[in-house]
Amino acid sequence: EIHELKWEMVDFKTRRINLPPEICKANEGRTIPMDEELTLVLDEHRKQRSSILPWVFLGRSGTSQRLDIRAGIDGAFKNIGRPDLHFHALRKTFATLYLEENPGQLFDLMEICGWKDVQTAKRYLGTTNRVQEDRSKRIQNAIPLGVAVASRHEKVAQKWRTLQNEIFDLV
Fold it and tell me: Considering the entire predicted model, what is its pTM?
């Protein structure tokens, strides 16, 4: 998607990037919000590039040759001594930090990233120390409730255990 990004898809007024279906993997368009910093960076980038060419990211010569961003990022990882990291590490980092800053907003993250199911999202989610600490607190708070419910009804207890497992899979 980033290789096909054109200026017409970047809306500076609404601070949104509108990706049409034909450039998205799932063949469904989506909208990506831009924060103030990204809006300013892209606006400055636009001012420095040729207004004739439609693509946001061009090769070093500024010609219609589009920049191979993936190769550039993979090369940067090698230069810092991390050849084990690749382009998609950035998506994983974004997803992990987004949920750390916006707890409970998994479905918003899925919409931004274009993921249709939780299993896809799980492939990209990592865990930070802060997330692990928050998880421990949630578990400590949830256990008394679960014990109280489970002590009354075995059927309810089984549902509770299933729900707990699903929650732990998401966080």
Answer: 0.58
